[in-house]
Write a structure and sequence with these properties.
Layout: H1 18-21, H2 26-32, H3 43-46, H4 48-74, H5 81-102, H6 104-108
Helix pairs in contact: 4-5
């Protein structure tokens, strides 16, 4: 008796794999496998409206973050490390929007 843990391991011997049951023609087996789909490019590289919307949104979000960090500087307060970091993050977000709008990768890999 005992549990399955105490018994010696015996692999499951179920139905034989399809290759052993009936020898199929290689052409029929290859036809049964669907062909690999061609690589699809992401929507942001093919959809101009998507790129404009996302790029403009990132540009606006970066500007908002940057100008929110600049507001205390206009009041004459010295910049702290948090404000400087917030300005850097805002500029970085805005730069991502500019890169998305400019599409440098799509233009740099066009051949012939």
């Amino acid at each position: 008796m005992g549990s399955a843990v105490t018994q010696p391991f015996e692999p499951f011997r179920g139905a034989a794999p399809p290759e052993a049951v009936s020898p199929a023609l290689p052409a029929a087996r290859a036809a049964a496998v669907p062909p690999a789909s061609p690589e699809r490019s992401p929507a942001l590289t093919t959809c101009w409206g998507c790129r404009v919307l996302c790029g403009a949104g990132l540009l606006g979000a970066g500007g908002h973050v940057y100008w929110a960090a600049r507001r205390p500087l206009k009041l004459g307060r010295p910049p702290g490390p948090g404000g400087v970091m917030q300005m850097v993050v805002g500029i970085s977000i805005a730069c991502c929007g500019v890169v998305l709008l400019a599409d440098p990768k799509g233009k740099s890999f066009r051949f012939g």
